[in-house]
Amino acid sequence: MTERDRRRARGALESEVMGVLWARSEPLTATEVQTAIGADLAYNTVQTILTRLHDKGLVLRERAGRGHVYWPAQDAATAAATRMREALADRPDRQLVLRQFAASLDDADASALRQMLSDVERTRRT
After folding, report:
1. Long-range contacts for 115-123 (Cβ within 8 Å, ≥24 apart)?
2. Which of 50, 65, 71, 119 is deepest in the core (most CB within 10 A)?
3. CA nearest neighbour of 56 among 83, 93, 29, 81
4. How far is CA 113 from CA 70, 79, 105, in A?
């Protein structure tokens, strides 16, 4: 296996860090995030990822001693919905993208989505 094969996919480390932060109910230090991820990840790497996530507005931070504690700016569901909206933004083929997405859902998810859309429509009418 080459070094390139062992490397994480682009954005995978940011996703892992966000997963750790979403799984915890309290703010975490970079050391706590590093420990939770494990995999011999260097502290500086975790600190860099947290700083980048903060710069992107995905995490918030507060000074704690000589460092910071970090927590997600949004819960996981809100963040996923935001990414979904961004994927549709300014697309000339929005309907096609939505059709492909809908076609990829299993029966349970399709049913749940139909019910939620119905609820949203009912709420908008009132």
Report:
1. none
2. 50
3. 83
4. 33, 18, 9
Judge: domain 3-72, CATH 1.10.10.10. yes
Rounding to the nearest 10 degrees, give the CA dihedral for residues 96, 98, 103, 105: 160
Strand order in the sheet with 67-72: 28-29, 67-72, 59-64
pTM beyond 0.90: the answer is no
34: left (phi over 0), alpha (psi -120 to 50) or beta: alpha
Chain-centre distance for alpha carbon 55: 15
Label residues 108-118 b or e (16+ Cβ within 10 Å = b).
Answer: eeeeeeeeeee
**Could you state, in order of their start, the residue ranges of all structural domains in the chain?**
3-72, 90-125
